[in-house]
């Protein structure tokens, strides 16, 4: 954050009349944090693209997941810096909306990356993974792997946190739908009545949380044989918990496609993971802002969706019929982080 | 107060009056000690008592709700495993808080040193023992930096560690490049780093070496605080630094030593962390600084310094662990787990304020 502020101060100092004459297009990138490899990769993707296209990228991030204030400040700074557009992964999709409106009123193109705003129409466009689809893929895969035993499966749901953000809900519900479980309210996690679900626990999307959550659910029911995890660090933590009690044959599925996660698919820690493409998200975003700067055209949503789908790919070494997937070796070529 | 025996030697008039009044006048306070006063005195004398009672009450509560599954030795040892990281950080935090300071950087130091250990062993390829030692030294250095800023530059510990928290965390991201080192890579290159996660089974309970290490550290630090001059100096410095100085204690040296020891303890916590989560993740331990303060506060150590017990912190960490595990087993939503921990903190500080009134 500090580094980026200094970078901004420098950028502003450099934007004095001398360099201003060059009229370099400025693109802003605001990520949730700069700790999560997903956002680090996203920034790298944007940086590479910006360098190739000769535009100036100013990047910002929140201090922690959920840090709305820093993101609001970043938007204000980017408006002041005269950016053409902003790529934003909102930490708080509702609270950030007024700041986004100010930016759009000032003539900037605002694209939500990864997480849609609420309402999604508050941004000019959303470039995101279809997280529900990502969940459906691993759900269908798990069901197919179990075959007849799917009817008597015992499922642990390792979610993100108690705020029930859209990504968390979409993956969770997508998995259950793919597995063939009645969702009840598809906007709500944990309201399912299917007895195959042992319980929902939160992991904060990290190893320690994944381990503790898995331990507690195993105490609730030691017969768990399917584990859904919100992301691969949580999956790695869950595996440690299972390994500690000698249950390494439990099916773990996850979402992300980070390189450590794909390596874990290769090593049999994770059965299957749905890969998303943060680099692509960012570079497509930079392209869209350049296009907007040149022609004023705004990106159009993918067919049938209210966002631009940047794709999702199932990675597994145990492919099942009817679900297209890539192997972990292929996945390692595509992975991020 | 003079005793009646002295009065018998000389018999001045006023003493005759005193004798006539009877000898029990000196004890009237004792007769009126209420139950609350007795409790107050008891808690004042034994700061570890309150959190221990809460812990026992929590265990009783959850075993009555959930039954045998909760009281199962395996589950109880699981709770011990789950609080091990916060327990070790809590020891460091207790030392700092006893000196009337606070350390917001413990979590960041733990993550930074875990990344140093992991990268030294896996990326650089050093022997894992050496990597571990470098990590421990790095922990000591971070403590020394905190200590230097507190003692030499006379900055408030809250501000110092607020700053170094950000600094150490940024260094962690820079050094790790936000990349996770996977469990399998550590297993292959540096099994010693996983030692703390190795478990032994005793009567159905499963204890990790990390948990045993934590208990050992509690005993060592308890001994040091209780039976060494250094320990007395730590309490004296926290209670009243001016008086401590007048009594000849070199308070700045004491403070410095506390920060360095705390830094090393954070690095030990890093070792425990690697053992528990298997991998080295630059994103681990985000909430660890606040969790460690929570454990210390629930454990009855006064945030104003100079009063508290190291085992209180163990109890405090266990109370949080028991509530989280118990509520999870009972199927209570995570929201209410957080709510309960929050309520416990308020109650603990309230009890501390009450105990402090002498």
Short key terms for the protein model shown above:
heterodimer, A: 337 residues, Rossmann fold, six-stranded parallel beta sheet, 12 strands, 17% strand, elongated, B: 358 residues, mainly alpha, ABC transporter involved in vitamin B12 uptake, BtuC, two-stranded antiparallel ribbon, 2% strand
CATH class of chain B, anyone? Mainly Alpha
What is the annotated CATH architecture of chain B?
Answer: Orthogonal Bundle
Q: Radius of gyration of chain B, Cα only, in angstroms?
A: 24 Å
Q: Uncertain spans of chain B, ≥5 residues at pLDDT below 50?
A: none
Ends apart, CA distance between termini of chain A: 20 Å
User: What's the CATH C level of the largest domain in chain A?
Assistant: Alpha Beta
- State the oligomer: heterodimer
**Strand runs of chain A, count:** 12
Total domain units of chain A: 2
CATH topology of the largest domain in chain A: Rossmann fold
Tally of discrete structural domains of chain B: 1
Topology pattern of chain A, helix = H, strand = E: HHEHEHEHEEHEHEHEHEHEHEEH
- Biggest β-sheet description of chain B: 2 strands, antiparallel
For the sheet with most strands of chain A, the description reads: 6 strands, parallel
């Amino acid at each position: 954050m500090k580094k980026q502020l200094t970078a901004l101060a420098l950028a502003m100092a450099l934007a004095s009349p001398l360099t201003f004459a060059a009229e370099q297009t400025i693109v802003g990138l605001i990520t949730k944090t700069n700790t999560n490899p997903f956002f680090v990769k996203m920034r790298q993707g944007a940086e590479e693209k910006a360098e190739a296209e000769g535009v100036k990228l100013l990047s910002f991030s929140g201090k922690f997941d959920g840090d709305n204030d820093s993101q609001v400040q970043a938007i204000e700074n980017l408006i002041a810096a005269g950016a053409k557009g902003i790529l934003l992964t909102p930490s708080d999709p509702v609270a950030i909306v007024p700041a986004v409106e100010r930016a759009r009123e000032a003539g900037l193109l605002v694209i939500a990356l990864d997480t849609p705003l609420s309402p999604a129409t508050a941004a000019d466009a959303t470039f995101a993974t279809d997280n529900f689809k990502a969940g459906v893929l691993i759900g269908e895969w798990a069901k197919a792997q179990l075959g007849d035993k799917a009817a008597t499966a015992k499922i642990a749901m390792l979610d993100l946190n108690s705020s029930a953000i859209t990504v968390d809900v979409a993956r969770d519900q997508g998995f259950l739908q793919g597995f063939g479980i009645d969702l009840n309210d598809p906007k709500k996690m944990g309201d399912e009545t299917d007895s195959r679900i042992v319980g929902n626990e939160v992991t904060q999307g990290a190893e320690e949380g994944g381990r503790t959550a898995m331990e507690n659910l195993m105490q609730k029911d030691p017969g768990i044989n399917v584990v859904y995890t919100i992301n691969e660090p949580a999956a790695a933590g869950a595996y440690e918990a299972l390994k500690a009690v000698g249950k390494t044959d439990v099916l773990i599925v996850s979402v992300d496609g980070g390189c450590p996660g794909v390596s874990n698919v290769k090593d049999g820690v994770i059965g299957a993971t749905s890969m998303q493409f943060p680099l692509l998200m960012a570079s497509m975003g930079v392209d869209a802002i350049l296009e907007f700067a040149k022609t004023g055209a705004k990106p159009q949503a993918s067919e049938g969706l209210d966002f631009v789908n940047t794709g999702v790919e199932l990675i597994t070494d145990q492919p099942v019929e009817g679900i297209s997937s890539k192997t972990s070796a292929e996945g390692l070529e595509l992975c991020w982080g | 107060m003079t005793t009646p025996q002295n009065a018998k030697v000389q018999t001045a008039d006023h003493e005759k009056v005193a004798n006539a009044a009877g000898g029990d006048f000196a004890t009237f306070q004792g007769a009126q000690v209420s139950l609350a006063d007795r409790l107050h005195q008891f808690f004042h004398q034994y700061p570890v008592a309150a959190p221990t009672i809460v812990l026992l009450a929590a265990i009783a509560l959850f075993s009555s709700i959930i039954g045998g599954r909760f009281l199962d030795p395996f589950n109880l040892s699981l709770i011990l495993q789950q609080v091990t990281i916060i327990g070790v950080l809590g020891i460091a935090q207790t030392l700092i808080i006893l000196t009337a300071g606070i350390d917001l950087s413990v979590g960041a130091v733990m993550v930074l040193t875990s990344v140093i250990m992991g990268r030294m062993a896996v990326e650089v390829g050093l022997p894992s023992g050496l990597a571990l030692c470098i990590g421990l030294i790095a922990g000591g250095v971070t403590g020394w930096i905190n200590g230097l800023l507190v003692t030499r530059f006379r900055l408030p510990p809250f501000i110092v560690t607020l700053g170094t928290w950000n600094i150490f965390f940024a260094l962690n991201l820079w050094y790790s490049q936000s990349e996770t080192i996977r469990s399998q890579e550590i297993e292959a290159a540096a099994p010693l780093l996983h030692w703390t996660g190795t478990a032994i089974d005793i009567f159905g309970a499963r204890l990790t070496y990390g948990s045993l290490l934590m208990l050992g550290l509690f005993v060592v630090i308890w001994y040091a605080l209780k039976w060494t001059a250094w320990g007395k100096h730590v309490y004296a410095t926290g209670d009243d630094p001016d008086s401590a100085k007048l009594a000849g204690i070199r308070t700045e040296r004491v403070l410095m030593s506390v920060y360095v020891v705390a830094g090393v303890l954070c690095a030990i916590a890093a070792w425990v962390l690697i053992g528990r989560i298997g991998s080295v993740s630059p994103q681990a331990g985000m909430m660890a600084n606040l969790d460690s303060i929570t454990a210390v506060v629930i454990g009855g150590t006064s945030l104003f310094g100079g009063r508290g017990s190291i085992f209180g912190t163990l109890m405090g960490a266990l109370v949080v662990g028991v509530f989280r595990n118990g509520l999870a087993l009972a199927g209570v939503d995570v929201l209410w787990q957080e709510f309960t921990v929050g309520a416990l903190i308020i109650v603990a500080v309230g009890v501390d304020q009450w105990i402090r009134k002498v």
